[in-house]
Structure prediction request, 249 residues.
Amino acid sequence: MGSDGGVDGDGRRPAFRRVLLKLSGEALMGPLEYGADRDRIAAIATQIKRVVDRGVQVAVVIGGGNIYRGLRGAAEGMDRATGDYMGMLATVLNALALQDALEKLGAVTRVQSAIEISEVAEPYIRRRAMRHLERGRIVIFAAGTGNPFFTTDTAAALRALEIHAEALLMAKNGVQGVYDADPRETPDARFLPEITHRQAIEQDLKVMDSTALSLCMDNSLPIHVFNMDDEVNIDRIVCGERVGTVVAT
Prediction:
């Protein structure tokens, strides 16, 4: 296949034309306590490249928790806005690491930052981002929304709506999707294959933060919550398989 045909070597047609993938910073840590693991980043890049090779337009929003975790001591007692700006800079570091891994695979990428750092990233310009996607480039959105008090979950919901993504793919670590309780604390927590945005908010199910969920609900944006540890899950979702939990209106 090529990016023009929309069909990969296995003959499956993608179910989506454009998606936004939300990665936590912790997804990049691998076995490390904090920081970024090179092999883990390479594995994620391979998954994204496989989907792009199907002809799907992919944008990525990435968190910064893996780096911020190492700064937790320094950030204690710090002004919330200052801490949030530190977190935004952490997402830029992660975006550059993912960009490098993708380009080693031959992908064409652009990093767009919500805060101005013109030496390493383009400024976020919605129409330019959409043009990059139309040309088959992977766009990595860094620095969240550019505003303190908003999480990268909210940035993912906002960017997905702005670029007219058909679905928001929410990668989780170590869990298959959404449960009615935290499976790490409640061994008999029940897996939920399908749920509405409103139910997720009312039951406080930790799919993403409530601001992000409300944005998705108000604009009928479906969220696919899945386990990032299975290295074919992104491809399976893009090909229309039911994987993990679907949060829909």
The two ends are 34 Å apart (CA to CA). Confidence is low (pLDDT under 50) at residues 1-5.
